Amino acid sequence: MNPNRPSQLKLLDNHRRDLCDRTHSAGKVVFTIFFWLLSSPWMLAQSGQSAEISSHYERAQSDLQANRPGDAALEFQAILRLDPNNAEAHANLGLIAFAGANYDAAARELRAALKIHPSLWNAQAFLGMSEMHLGATDEARQSLETAFARLEDKNLRIRVGTMLIQLDYEQGKLEDALDVATVLNKLAHDDPDVLYIVYRTHSALAAHALSKLAKVGPNSARLHEVLAESHASDNDFSGAIAEYEKALAIDSTLPGVHFELGEAILRNKSDEDSRARAEQQFAAALVENPYDAHSEYELGEIAFQRSRWQEAMQHYARAAQLQPTLVDAQVALGKILTQLGQPEAATKPLLEAVRLDPDNASAHYRLAQVYRALKRDDDARREMETFLALHKAEDANGTKHAEQ
Q1: What is the per-residue pLDDT across 301-360, written as a single tens digit (0 to 9) for each?
Q2: Angstrom distance (rounded) from CA 379 to CA 370
Q3: How many angstroms separate the CA atoms of 102 and 69, rounded?
Q4: What is the 3-state secondary structure (H, E, C) of 345-393?
Q5: Where is average pLDDT lowest: 109-118, 152-161, 197-206, 359-368?
Q6: Does residue 61 contact residue 25 with C-beta atoms inside 8 Å?
Q7: At what angle do helices 257-268 and 293-305 cross, to 10 degrees?
């Protein structure tokens, strides 16, 4: 891989193009959008409850429900002949024009509505979208930003936020795009489309940062670290090892790289030579950071594989002490205590592991073994049933099983 032009740099343009395609697709309007404004009492209130205007309004509503926007437009035009300053009639005509992709007419009517009633935020939102379709990006941004924070309808706010992100992409303002994506994520954290936008925004920002890193530091330790991470994510651990070693040759104190190199070595091969090389890296990581619980845990795993039970116990206990929420360390403590013939003592870390991560199949499996050794048959049966259910779910999801 050429460090001056890593393949990840292609992501930025792909992300921008993909997000814009999805945003344009989201621009296809269905006629339910009309009721974002029709539900408001403003039309009747400002016209003194005129019976004639009310009649036109009701017929327009029926026309829209029957998917007859042309007939509804005639009714709103009739309202404007009776009351030229009826803001909502202008707004609904703007929506009808927008739905028909007549963005010039939509913008004209929506501006008229907002001139009369500036706080029609839904109309402000559709004005921004109309301006965007017309290529007036500066005006579109102002309209969309004005509406975005004030919209009450969740779906419309997501729609406006998505278009703001598109504008940010097109103008290279990725940090602004991230701000909007963060708001959308809080608004609809379980919406697949929003999660996709958040993912794409973060990915594009990362690709942009990588592009800049490649320009300002083409031979830097950090770029080699990034390239190593890329190799590791592709399961190319020999490539990752080479890049991590290059990074450390440039800066031996680079935080976290000794640990990552040790991990890559172990994942590349599982022989004793690899364990010895990885052990050196984890020890170096602890010199760099004596509170590195993950390196302590990995040293425990290496000692366990060498059948050095007491040494493994010390590393596991230290890892759990440094980071009590490290589930792997708690499970490992239960594992080694069971190996040392102390099932009663093993229950404490295993129960803590289950408390921290109720879906950890390995913890339930080892707890079942401990209960069986303690003759607690009902508890052992319950834990084994839980383990089997989790194991079955992992099979169904294609999840790789953790070491038991």
Answers
A1: 999 999 999 999 999 999 999 999 999 999 999 999 999 999 999 999 999 999 999 999
A2: 10
A3: 13
A4: HHHHHHHHHHHHCCCCHHHHHHHHHHHHHCCCHHHHHHHHHHHHHHHHH
A5: 197-206
A6: no
A7: 30
* Burial group, residue 94, by CB count within 10 angstroms (0-12, 13-18, 19+): buried
Which residue, 151, 201, 143, 183, is CA-closest to 22? 201
In the chain, % of residues over pLDDT 70 = 85
Q: What's the CA gap between 63 and 51, in Å, rounded?
A: 18
How many helices (H) and strands (E) are present in the chain, helices listed first?
A: 22, 0
Question: Whole-angstrom Cα distance, residue 349 to residue 339?
Answer: 14
Torsions phi, psi for 219 (to 5 deg): -120, 25
Secondary structure of residue 270 in the 3-state scheme:
coil
Sign of CA dihedral 75, 105, 81, 36: positive
Taking the chain, what is the end-to-end CA distance rounded to the nearest angstrom?
37
- Name the token pair of 234: 């592709």
Contact 227, 28 (CB under 8 A): no
Structural domains present in the chain: 7-212 (1.25.40.10), 219-290 (1.25.40.10), 320-404 (1.25.40.10)
Confidence of residue 258 (pLDDT cuts 50, 70, 90): very high
For 148-184, how does the pLDDT look when each residue is reduced to its tens digit (9 = 90+)? 989 988 889 998 998 898 888 888 888 888 889 889 9
Please give the Cα distance from 43 to 78 (Å, whole number).
Answer: 13
Tell me the C-alpha distance between 53 and 63, whole Å.
15
Task: Return all residues near 215 (Cβ < 8 A) that are at least 6 apart.
Answer: none
| Lookup result for tokens 């890559």 | 264
Tokens of 137: 């990006």
